[in-house]
Amino acid sequence: MFLSSYANSHQVAKATPFKEADSLHGLFSRQPAEHLAIGQSLFFEGDETRHVFEVVEGTLRIFRIISDGRRVITGFLYAGDIVGVSLKERYLYSAEAITPTKVRRLARRAFDDAVADSDELRPEVFSRVCDEMAAVQDQLVLLSSKTAEERLCTFLLRHLRRMIAGGNRETTIELPMTRQDMADYLGLTIETVSRTITKLIGKGVVNVTNPAARHFIKIEKPGMLAQLAGDGGECPEALHDLMAQGDRRRH
Amino acid sequence: MFLSSYANSHQVAKATPFKEADSLHGLFSRQPAEHLAIGQSLFFEGDETRHVFEVVEGTLRIFRIISDGRRVITGFLYAGDIVGVSLKERYLYSAEAITPTKVRRLARRAFDDAVADSDELRPEVFSRVCDEMAAVQDQLVLLSSKTAEERLCTFLLRHLRRMIAGGNRETTIELPMTRQDMADYLGLTIETVSRTITKLIGKGVVNVTNPAARHFIKIEKPGMLAQLAGDGGECPEALHDLMAQGDRRRH
DNA sequence: CGCCATCTTGATTGATATCAAATCCGGTGG
DNA sequence: CCACCGGATTTGATATCAATCAAGATGGCG
């Protein structure tokens, strides 16, 4: 599966002078960069997992095509992410570039050996696997119980946080994916995504300043966005109420 | 997170004469068994992850309570499963016994050290983490794109497969969880779960033989169940159509 | 025997999908 | 430079599946 870099990626990204085996980023740094054009595939669902990849630049979508032809996007990959670790013999999804993308690859075997040998790498891999697992959990909660508006707000909020974690003080986020991608990721239709964004603009929560760039969204009211996302920041807040039973509401 | 044992668990379970560190099961085997009554909690979301657990007997639900009070069940734990591995400092969910349950625990630290030291344990942990990731992926697809009937059928089918994988030739599966649990796991309401099961009985796909035991469901037509589950067996079948674009349907 | 939790069934509503048609925008070629 | 084309997006009208609201039915258990 893919591994989100979170805060890590940025620190690591700056620190190229690492000894190769000291970090996952270092491990990939000597590999040649490969370029993917928009729409180009990195690998397909069902392919043998011969390589592990580091995304150097750009964004990819990872998805499965289900029997009726629909597409389910299970995640996006951003610069600093690593993909292909928590998989056995076959990829469980396809990966496709959304923007011009640069990646580095490592043979599966070489990667596994390096990680097995290094006391520095193992915790880093572990940490990323945990982050990835946590992200999938959150997505599971989103899909199983959130409304269209909550899903959109959660999605925007995650982007805003990624931005802030990356040290960027901007409140304009870039959404490199299309509305269709967002729909397939959030378990909605493209029409519902569009309508919901329109509604959020109407509420003054977000704004699309430059009409030429629907892929740039200004977050006008981050606090309200968090409210509408419908959970105390993707985390439990009023927890540990010692199992407040018998109060289970709708759904 | 929790780790499904799949086929592994059964082989391992028989082989108690292993040297302790040879298998995960062996690693736990010297720990005293602890008993949980129905409804009793093993740990709570937000607690520090001080222990890793092996489920020896029984079934647990793992879940999160979201801000509006609803409960999202993110998985179930069965005999042979291990829980608490792919987590950092805090549990991301609570775990609660659905049936009388027996578990063994290991201090987090002891577990990590044992795994770090053993060339036999590491692949086993890796394998289980991969299985878990695959399971969450499948759940994600289920929640993002399946109808109520497809969800129920998928759920029943998984139980049937677990049974078959366990060497049991029966086609009557036990569902130790309540209808509410199933609803919270499948992203439905209890009414929809109930209605959908009634409909499946009407179609002759399944049957509840003993009225006294709604928790035992006989699968009358496994083939049809798989059809209704709405995917070529939780796996892609007509894959690799070289990206049959521009045919994306509803949702 | 009768309470109580669990489950089932029925009637209605509502959010979102579906179907359909504009609108917008970048790119292309005249 | 401007008209046209096609993909992406938005907007509108309607349909539908599952949620909600509301009773019953069932079975375990004291």
UniProtKB/TrEMBL annotation, chains A, B:
Gene3D superfamilies reported in the protein's UniProt record: Jelly Rolls (2.60.120.10), Winged helix-like DNA-binding domain superfamily/Winged helix DNA-binding domain (1.10.10.10)
UniProt keyword annotations, A-Z: DNA-binding, Transcription, Transcription regulation
Domain HTH crp-type residue range list: 146-223
Pfam families on file: cNMP_binding (PF00027), HTH_Crp_2 (PF13545)
Domain Cyclic nucleotide-binding positions: 39-84
PANTHER family assigned to the protein according to its UniProt record, in alphabetical order: CRP FAMILY TRANSCRIPTIONAL REGULATORY PROTEIN, FUMARATE AND NITRATE REDUCTION REGULATORY PROTEIN
Designated name of the protein: Helix-turn-helix domain-containing protein
Lineage, uppermost ranks: Bacteria, Pseudomonadati, Pseudomonadota, Alphaproteobacteria, Hyphomicrobiales
